[in-house]
Amino acid sequence: MWDKTYSTDEFVYGTEPNAFLKANTDKLKPGSVLCLGDGEGRNGVYLAKLGFEVTSVDLSETGLAKARELAEANNVEINTICADLNDYAEEPNCWDNIVSIFCHLPPPLRKKVHAASAEALTENGIFLLEAYTPRQLEMPGTGGPPVPELLYSAGMLKDDFQSLEVFQALETEREVNEGSKHYGPGAVVQLLARKT
């Protein structure tokens, strides 16, 4: 599915970073960043330009090829790993930051990946996430999965990351203008959490 989505000259989610990530970059810990479901690489490349050591993991080799092209065009390097998050093993205490932007996973996999992510952070490491909430179903055509079980709530994420210090878990609405696939009003949840 994702290879087909990304098999176009267009960057379907644009080449600019996610707005929530951009607004909160100053909260990240210097060092390494793992970008989950980074697709065509807009967020990973942005972070690499700021001096972070970036690894982008995604299911789509087509998306990651475009991510490498975007990195080259911006004179930066990112590491790319083509993997299903079902199979990708995050090592404990190895990432200074983990970023998850619109990486919508089925509930069992979501819980597994979020638990592994909490363990994988180094001390004072940051987990940053933005995803669509179930209210997004009232805004058809503007982005996000069309099924409720793939959408996230603040309560769900607080539960997933109860081992971390959650200092923001906000459900809100904002204009999401990030490529042709995310365009228009969005009902989102924004999470920032720290490993203490």
From TrEMBL:
Protein name, per record: Class I SAM-dependent methyltransferase
Taxonomic superkingdom: Bacteria
Keyword annotations: Methyltransferase, Transferase
Enzyme Commission number: 2.1.-.-
GO MF term set: methyltransferase activity
GO biological-process terms attached to the record: methylation
Residue span, Methyltransferase domain: 33-125
SUPFAM superfamilies given in the database record: S-adenosyl-L-methionine-dependent methyltransferases
Keyword Transmembrane: no
